[in-house]
Amino acid sequence: MTAELAPELAASPIEIAPEPTLEPAPEPDFRPTTEPTGLTAPDPRDDDAEADLLCAVLVSSGRALDDIDLAASEFFRPAHETIYAAALALHADGHPVEPTTIADYLLRRGDLKRVGGAIAIATIYGRHANVVSAPHYAAIVRERAARRVVVAAGVHLQQVGATPTGDVQEVVEHARGRIDQLADRLAGPLDLDPEGHLDDAIEAIEHGTASLPTPWDDLNHLIAGWRRGALYVVAARPGSGKSIVGAQAAADVMIRHGRPVVIASLEMTRREVLMRWMSQLGEVDLADLIRGGPSVGADQWDRISRARGVLSSTRWVVDDRSTATVADIRAAVSRCVRRHGDCGLLVVDYLQLVAPGGRHENRQTEVASISRALKVAAKNLNVPVLVMAQLNRASENSGRPPRISDLRESGSIEQDADVVLLMHRDAEQDPGTLYVGVGKNRHGPMGSFKLDWQGSYSRVLTHQWRPTDVLRAVPS
After folding, report:
1. Pick from 379, 383, 358, 378: nearest CA to 368
2. Under a CB-based contact definition with an 8 Å cutoff, are residues 333 and 341 in contact?
3. Strands 261-265 and 385-390: what pairing?
4. Residue 97 to residue 359: CA distance in whole angstroms
5. Peptide bond into 350 cis (omega under 30)
6. For residue 175, what pLDDT band results from cuts at 50, 70 and 90?
7. Residues 6+ away with beta carbon under 8 Å from 386
8. pLDDT digit string (tens) for 331-375?
9. What pLDDT, on the 0 to 100 scale, is given for residue 306?
10. CA–CA separation, 316 vs 321, rounded Å?
11. Rounded to 5 degrees, what are φ and ψ at 113?
């Protein structure tokens, strides 16, 4: 059994569960072709529009990026492409996009000389482009990139058509696919149809907002499940069950709902995450799985085998790099979507361990930038994001249930989150119960409830009423 599990537990940076029936969709390449074009005219380009767009991005400290949707590969000049890619990365992590930050970013990656040094960036910054015109500059850059794709596709068809070898039908289909992708790209993401948006809103009211139910009925009653684009924070002290809740939520989405999931596990290894799933699904004591060897009996191996069979038919990505940044996590989600066509849930365990990916004045601003970047990622990637977070030590010693103000190191987590769940246990007085409070709910009521704690099986279950609940409710 151990030998069978070895391939799934290989120590690669990112492991993707097998999905043989789906292939990653090809991505359009807007860069100039390296193949000889046979044309005397230069490739379509507009260096001034590219430079003015970069100037608008720098002058606005990156805010202009919110109004455009342009890939770095759509720039003709490699230096412009590199600078724009750096601006996108900084903006995604919540950092200001300015000449100094761009130069520092490129210097740390060994790319500063490739773009002409800090002087080249300063020259672009000094062009005095109009920030309001950034979408217009972007449209010019995209139009030139589109023409380069058309030219490259036409030349490629000409070259292959003149060659007697190869399947011409495959060539035609490949060219058609590139042109279709280009047409979709040129259409742009912005939909300005007011009637259509109103109809969507009415349909959502009529049929309910699409969301995935959580594994716990009481939580569903309060927050109505995991919604796309929402940021959920599960806050607790160490050892209170944050990782269990995150792993169980992910398993529920990929097994019960049949959707791919991504777990950014900065604290546990991939092997430990898989063991928690096997413990939960097979009802095998997690301590026995960790000890292994003679600690695992024959009947437990049978349950482990059945759990492995269930997991092998699911789709998941477990990224266990301890130094992952938000950009790394976004890339893992994008890879999951390309491979599986969807992502039903992103779990980050836990927020305070995410690498900042830049320089900050202090730890509070560092955590604040990570929190904001995760909220932006939830919205832009259109996936629900479930983030574990630590509570400060004061909440443990206060003798009261935790409050949202107990979130460790940053009050911005409360601002960015759509829902904040506050969990605690009383291992001495009530070891079988996990107490959960909804400290913030942007679109619904707040409240509290209990879950049945089954830590040995790495799970918590909807609380079943017991007579002792009445006894605890009677004042002594």
Report:
1. 358
2. no
3. unpaired
4. 13
5. yes
6. low
7. 226, 232, 234, 246, 249, 250, 345, 346, 347, 348
8. 888 888 888 888 999 999 888 888 876 566 677 778 888 888 888
9. 93
10. 16
11. -65, -30
